[in-house]
Amino acid sequence: MKTALVCGAGGFIGGHLVKKLKSEGFWVRGIDLKPNEFAASAANEFIIGDLTNPVVVADVLNKPFDEVYQLAADMGGAGYIFTGENDANVMHNSALVNLNIAELSVKAGVKKLFYSSSACIYPAYNQNDPDNPNCAEHSAYPAAPDSDYGWEKLFSERMFLAYSRNYGLNVRIARFHNIFGPEGTWTGGKEKVPAALCRKIAEAEDRGQIEVWGDGKQTRSFLYIDECLEGVRRLMQSDFEGPVNIGSEEMVSVNQLAHMIAAIAGKEIHIHNIPGPEGVRGRRSDNKLIYEKLKWAPSVPLKDGLAKTYAWINAQVKVKVDQPTYI
Ligand code: NAD
Ligand code: GDD
């Protein structure tokens, strides 16, 4: 039986990845600082541990895993990574985790390692035009990410590639573009715009108003969790090291996204655009390379994933509203 370790298994993508690996017949160990928030983990073993501690990392790698998935990171949406308040913690935590995992994976004889990088590594100067952003993989340099979160991801990409060249660590690197779906963070400050707008619309009355940060003309592309995992598994099974984009090419403005969700909810919603942390003006996955290397690229329409995500977040909102308050 093939074995896998999922680092960050208590998070959104990690939790779903554990389920997928189990359904494919893997024996899975998960590790995270915390358990999954919304469902019990499907992992065979789930360890609560801090991967910034090399002793913990050496211990969790005490089997010669066939595959290791490194998803653990300090991460959040625009309200978390663009305010500047979390930069030192994001860089310190995520860099230490990645340094430990690279070094100790070589020592432990890990056969193949996946690293989740981000679209946030792309230079801000190529993402000023909301209608025509450039996120082709080769455009990453000269580097100018617009957040320290993006700089850490770029550093860690390079570090894993250096371990590949110098120590033969067999790595695969993907740059995720705004992944969304059920069981993702939807409240509390770390949520990304698909979940934030689903929540705001679920909480709004019909013909009510919601607040959207910025002028709403900034653009993004969003990828549903199932297609993200399909891309990850295909990359792991291929000979291509990456880095490669895993994202959708279907780009919408943030106000358009709000209208799409309102239509799914069956509500008429008035959008009030307010100042807020915005990040780049435009961003969209460029899928030429993934298609060339894997003969596959995401293709499911955005509205399909939004419908499943809205239904889940709407149910979470209802549970919260229905909860009795004890005094
Ligand atoms: P998430 O925040 O839900 O999951 C990350 C998990 O890592 C969390 O459960 C957290 O507790 C854990 N973690 C953080 N520091 C740790 C430590 N020191 N030791 C052990 N566990 C630790 O985020 P996600 O959306 O599931 O993202 C997974 C990965 O994909 C991250 O590396 C993220 O940067 C990357 N990524 C995600 C997106 C996206 O849109 N979701 C986009 C680009 C890149
Ligand atoms: N989060 C959030 N909440 N964003 C909002 C809101 C809101 O209520 N209203 C409008 N927005 C706008 C933000 O201002 C930003 O311009 C845009 O929606 C997208 O915001 P996010 O989804 O939070 O983040 P992002 O796309 O800029 O970056 C995310 O994706 C990267 C990968 O593509 C982050 O999650 C990064 O960590 C990730 O790496």
TrEMBL record:
Keyword Oxidoreductase found: no
> Pfam families attached here?
Epimerase
- Keywords per UniProt: NAD
Task: Write out the coiled-coil annotation as residue ranges.
Answer: none
In this chain the NAD-dependent epimerase/dehydratase domain maps to 4-247
Q: State the protein's name.
A: NAD-dependent epimerase/dehydratase family protein
> Record keywords: NAD included?
yes
Q: Which InterPro entries match?
A: Epimerase_deHydtase, NAD(P)-bd_dom_sf
